[in-house]
Amino acid sequence: MKPLRLLAWMVLSLSACACARFGENSQRARMQALPPIRQTLADALPRFDNQQWPAAAWWKQFGNPALSRLIETALAGNPDLKAAEARLRQSQAMVDSQAAELYPTVDANIGFSAQRFSANSTQAKLAGENFRQLLITPLILRYHLDFWGRDRAALQGAVDRSLSAAAELADARLLLAAALAGAYFDLLAADAQLDIAGNIVNRSQTLLKLRQTGLDAGLSAAAPVLQAGMELKQARQIQAASRAEAALQRNLLAALAGKGADWGREIRIEAGTCAEQAVLPSDLPLRLLAHRPDISAARLQAEAAAEEIKVAETAFYPDVNLIAFTGLHSVSLSDVLLQGASLAYAVGPSIEFPIFEGGRLRANLSYQQAAYDRSVERYNASLVQAVREVADSVSRWRETGQRLAEQTQILADAAASEQLAASLDRAGLTDKAALIQAGLVKDQQQFRLAALRAEQCKSAVRLIKALGGGYTDGDPQPSGQ
Q: What are the b/e assignments for 180-218, b being 16+ CB within 10 Å?
């Protein structure tokens, strides 16, 4: 028992020395709580609900089958998303690999060698002898005794990084779906504006002909003709810009879906609906941590970095491995299997003591501590960014809704003005030019309304994205170092 007591005393002594070799324990970064946001939300958008939250397939709430088909196609075929999925599979494989470190390994070995010692060598006793050696070792056992928790910490770190990769994949899917929805609503607006621009061009051409007829008949000056000509050219510019915008949005949608530009030309568009007023969950400040994939990914990265600090600390302690083997070893091929004297076995611990590493262990520990501090500060920055995005999205939603309501009323007034001009024209109280001008004003206001309707839908998408797009993390509470 004396050798075992001596061994235990040495292990404890060196472990105590290892604690002193960590160096000075500097202050680690801390995960901060979610910055205050409730009052900002209450001032900007007072409607709250206990259960409301974006669904996983949040795009279906717009009631637009074409948009749903586009997003589902993009989620299945986008190359960047497939790369993120491959990174997730890599991280899951690393978890399996790290988990294998907790179990013993069993190997088998068979070796044969023939050797002759020189008759003129210093090994006089074996000079000139020939040997043939056969080693059959069907059982070689190695087991790392994880006294200090290194393997467990490394496994937990791998699990955290895998979960972080899953959250990053969810964030990539959310960003892709949000970008595609925004481009789709821009395409809807461009397509509607293209039709309206065509009406403006036709009305401008009719007005120009009317002005020219008046000039030819000596009933009008040249200035109205020149003005009508400039307005026609401006209308054609708007028409060309709308046509180009529609083509650009189709190209963007095709690229987001992982397709070529020709595929984008075949995209069918359908009108959908956007909610007039957003409804947020009543406990949004608390739930936001669990419903933002980027926040979850940042938190898990910090927790993985905390585990890697533990792994770096265990490198200062003795490393103990249990090694055992059994087999048949013989220099005679004839008796290796027939005589029990060929039996060989061994079992015992192997202990490595870190004595002098030239500062490598302390440098690695400092590196992991700095990596943890960086991950924590990234998490804190993601909290601030999340709060800003939610507040901005809510404010933008409210502002867009107000502008849309005003523009709808403006369009109604312009339509009423056109009807009045038509009545006066039928009564012979005004000329045809006034009716055309009233129609142009109505088309121009309708052109602006199409852009605002798309902006309202995009504001809804931005708000859904800021709220996490239906993502749920079951463990939102940060665990600091």
A: bbbbbbbbbbbbbbbebbebbbebbebbbebbbebbeee
Which two tokens mark 67?
Answer: 């948009």
pLDDT band per the 50, 70, 90 thresholds, residue 216: confident
The overall average pLDDT reported for the chain is 85
Highest mean pLDDT: which of 44-58, 86-100, 340-354?
86-100
Q: What pLDDT is stored for residue 481 in this prediction? A: 39
Which domain does 32 fall in, by range? 27-104+149-318+359-466
CB 373 within 8 A of CB 30: no
Task: Give the three-class secondary structure for 319.
Answer: strand
Total domains in the fold of the chain:
1
Q: What is the pLDDT of residue 90?
A: 94
CATH label of the domain that carries residue 375: 1.20.1600.10
pLDDT in tens, 49-94: 656 678 889 998 888 899 999 999 999 989 999 999 999 999 999 9
Pair of tokens at residue 444: 């121009």
User: How buried is 172 (Cβ within 10 angstroms: 0-12 exposed, 13-18 middle, 19+ buried)?
Assistant: buried
Residue 48 lies in a domain: yes
- Whether the pLDDT of residue 48 is over 70: the answer is no
Residue 418 domain-assigned (yes or no):
yes
DSSP 110: E
List pLDDT tens digits, range 195-210: 999 999 999 999 999 8
Tokens for 189, please give them.
């607006």
DSSP state of 471: -
Residues sharing a CB contact under 8 Å with residue 186, sequence separation 6 or more, in sequence order: 245, 249, 454, 458
Distance CA 159, CA 475 (A): 14
Q: 78 lies in a domain?
A: yes
What are 139's two structure tokens?
């059982």
Number of DSSP helices (H) and strands (E) in the chain, helices first: 11, 6
Tokens 């002005």 belong to which residue?
A: 211
d(CA 111, CA 118): 23
In a domain, 138, yes or no: no
Q: Is 378 helix (H, G, I), strand (E, B) or coil?
A: helix
Closest CA to 183 of 260, 264, 239: 264
Q: Give the global pTM.
A: 0.84
The closest of 23, 6, 4, 9 to 364, measured between CA atoms, is 23
Q: Which of 362, 378, 373, 275 is nearest to 313 (CA)?
A: 362
Read off the pLDDT of residues 106-144 as tens digits, 9 standing for 90 and up.
999 888 878 777 777 766 666 667 777 778 788 889 999
